[in-house]
Amino acid sequence: MKNKKGLEHILAIDCGSTNLKAALFDDSLNRICQCSEPLYYLSKEQNKLEFDTEKTWQSTLNLIKDVYKRSGISLTKIKKISFTSQSNTFSILNPSGKPMIPFISWMDERAVEESQIIAEKLGKDFHLHSGYAEPLPSLQITKLYWIRRHNSELLSPQNKIVSVPSFLSLKIAGINSIDFNLAGMSGLYSFTDLDWWDQAIDICQINKKQLPLLTNIRTGVKASTINKEIDFSDEVEIFFSGNDQSAGAVGNACSSDKMIVTLGTALVAYRYMGNKPGPYSKNSIWGRFPLGGYFELGGGADNGCAALDWAIGQLMPGSNIHDFETRAKNAYLDRIRSENSLNEIFFYPDFAGTRRAWSGVGNLDWFVLSVFEGILFTLRKLILEDMQVKRPLPKILAAGGGSKSNFWLQMMSDILDANVSRATGDALLGAAIMASKTNIPEFIDKQHWILPDQARVEIYEKLYWNWRKRLHGNAKN
User: Fold this and answer.
1) CATH code matching the domain that covers 253-423+447-477, chosen among 3.40.1690.10, 1.25.40.340, 3.30.420.40, 3.10.50.40
2) Mean pLDDT comparison of 299-303, 441-445, 450-454, highest-scoring range
3) How many CB atoms lie within 10 A of CB 225?
């Protein structure tokens, strides 16, 4: 590792949905230390998902102090701070900078009626401008419209609307900015106009001055003022490095022949699309890739590890993932034995929480195996049918909690018939790369690739289409 007393250090901060994370990198992008703090949610109901603004700031202060303690490097040596963030979560500040509401999470879905109204007003052009197929209740535009209808004084012209990184950069350095990638996740930004979307803003009855200033990724913004609670240099620059999915893609050298799959709470597939703008498929999200060109993103529902956790509670209450996986392996090995290979117990993650989650009869091992298979069948549908990725599939890098399981990665390779590896980079590294002049580190490309087992590929091809037929039947019921 390069001497940690190098001339330039980068502090990367990932404003995630579960934890705030920070890592310190040297000027060769070696990771010196890393730490995290949990988010403090005030409400976690589906139609009211909010977390505390002041505690978010205090957690960020704790992270910065922890970085100093762990690294032994003076904060004055940090010349660059790079933010990546969960998408379109926001708060509203009064003219003195005091938050008037908690952060409303991107997962909050209170604005169902408002999404329908906006769809009528902007539906025809929405996918072309915003990157989203429709104005979902989770988008910032729909929740701002909800606020306009229910508590309009919050959107008075003198108040500011801030994302999580905008709020933190304001607190640290007096800067209220946002990059085009993260702005593009809000429904308020136009990829056609390359600016805040006038029609969307008009619907919410706000003006551009209430929104953060747009800035380019890889372009640092000089600090206006330095918070007295933190001993940063007056020369520190703030970088805004996109949403965490995009930063993770940069941190894993995502390219036209290498896509990223996240086995997290949700299933998410992310790929680089070159220089041609979207939309690319009917239901996927598209936007500007941080390093140039465009990306496509599919998924986003709680049909990943959230469905897995629910299934564990149903089938093996009190068990952990390791016990659950052990039961699944017994049946998985039988997939290459002809008498059991087409055992048809199917799990449907989209129906988790209901009686329609399973179909078929059999012993516990096969029911447990069906959970892992059903989640990966859903991933296959997402990639091949919804996103319309052509075969042969690009190499797949798996991130998220589920990627820690070699068993699940091998099954992913078999079901997708693709080479699979565990991702070696993350959003923190991606944020550091975007604030650095250094080339992407070579170690990102040193993956161990898991190859598909052709006997199971053939079995899963048949099973997938049977699962698919029953999925159609379940959707009708």
Assistant:
1) 3.30.420.40
2) 450-454
3) 11
Strands 19-25, 9-15: parallel, antiparallel or unpaired by DSSP?
antiparallel
pLDDT tens digits, one per residue of 184-194: 999 999 999 99
Q: What is the model's pLDDT at position 473? A: 66
pLDDT at 260 over 80: yes
Distance CA 474, CA 87 (A): 31
**Distance of alpha carbon 222 from alpha carbon 74, whole angstroms:** 19
Q: Where is 312: in which H helix or E strand?
A: helix 305-315
CA pair distance 186, 168, nearest whole angstrom: 18
- CA dist 363 and 416 (Å) reads 26
Greater pLDDT, 166 or 6:
166
196 and 190 in contact (C-beta within 8 Å)?
yes
C-beta of residue 258 within 8 angstroms of C-beta of residue 154: no
Characterize the bridge pairing of strands 213-215 and 177-179.
Answer: parallel
Tell whether the model's pLDDT for residue 5 goes beyond 50: no
Residue 395 host element (H or E) = strand 395-399
Distance CA 75, CA 207 (A): 37
Q: Give the architecture-level CATH label for domain 9-245.
A: 2-Layer Sandwich (3.30)
Omega before residue 392 within 30° of 0, cis: yes
Query: Which residues, in sequence order, are bridge partners of residue 421?
Result: 397
292: left (phi over 0), alpha (psi -120 to 50) or beta: left
Comparing CA positions, the residue from 259, 113, 245, 111 lying closest to residue 181 is 245
The beta strand positions in 5-122, using DSSP E, are 9-15, 19-25, 31-38, 41-45, 48-51, 78-85, 90-93, 103-104
Domain layout of the chain by residue ranges? 9-245, 253-423+447-477
> What is the chain's length?
477
CB 131 within 8 A of CB 160: no
Closest CA to 430 of 250, 266, 272: 250
Average pLDDT over residues 152-162: 98
Look at the block and give the residue holding tokens 């161990």: 448
Strand ranges of the sheet holding 294-299, from the earlier edge strand across to the other edge: 285-288, 294-299, 267-274, 258-263, 395-399, 420-422
Q: Which of 291, 242, 221 is nearest to 427 (CA)?
A: 242
